[in-house]
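Take a protein:
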Amino acid sequence: MTVDPHARTAELPVTKNETGPFHTKSALVRIDIAALSDTGKVRPNNEDHYMVIRFGRSLDVLMTNLPKGETPARAEEVGYGFAVADGMGGAKGGEVASRLAISKLFNLVLEVPDWILRLDLDDELVEEVMRRSTRRYREVNAVISQLAEKEPQLTGMGTTMTLAFSLGEKLILTHVGDSRTYLFRGGCLLQLTTDQTVVQELWEKGKITRKGAAVHPWRHILTQALGIPGADLQVETRQLKLEDGDCLLLCTDGLTEMVSDATIAEVLKQDRTAADACQALIDLALEGGGKDNITVIVARYSLPE
């Protein structure tokens, strides 16, 4: 290598890092999370499945001769993901479908080479994450359908699946079926997902009242589910901005059939841990009859200023 003796070395601006590790907003988010599932009092087996994950990336400087304070010793991004799935289909079909849906989705995420972990930088990145989520749901749908075709005892199996994941203040939801995501904020409970059911469509068309929808005999008939062969799968996605003190609830209809929204709000309003809230909700569903499997995930957020 030839060195030009007249060349000048550029002086890089030094970014001071007096406080040690560099923390993005996502790394400073604190969440109290708990999840619980119960077979209920009627069903012989549990066809619900759930998953809670913490994901991210990190960088640790192990060795360098750069001036002290020019780079952080450590930097990281941290996100959280929650999924619930409620299977359907006789015998073991529903149990297989819901388990397969979550495990396949998890492995599809692992296969992606370029995780998007800075949703605060560009709205297009958020849109891309939502497009990817939709594609993954369609892949999961195909896998479940193909297995049902190969295994006669699994014919007709399917599942709901509701996914929520957050990076910093950004929350993205992906949803098929009638397992719900709620946001509890400022004493109010808001349903973030729309039930994909016959009764929901009837209500939207003004053919029944909301009160009538709650007791309609068709309220459990899904218009969308993962694993339905030949279906034009309608995947619902949305995004919103979280606020400090927000609480998320993901649940299957084993909870919402037995416990009213008003009662759910009362439980979440109380100053209790996420684990205690999960147990209280399960107990209420059992007291109400426990006619279906019950699964709940509660996540309480503390966001940096």
Q: What stands out?
A: The CA atoms of residues 141 and 262 lie 34 Å apart.
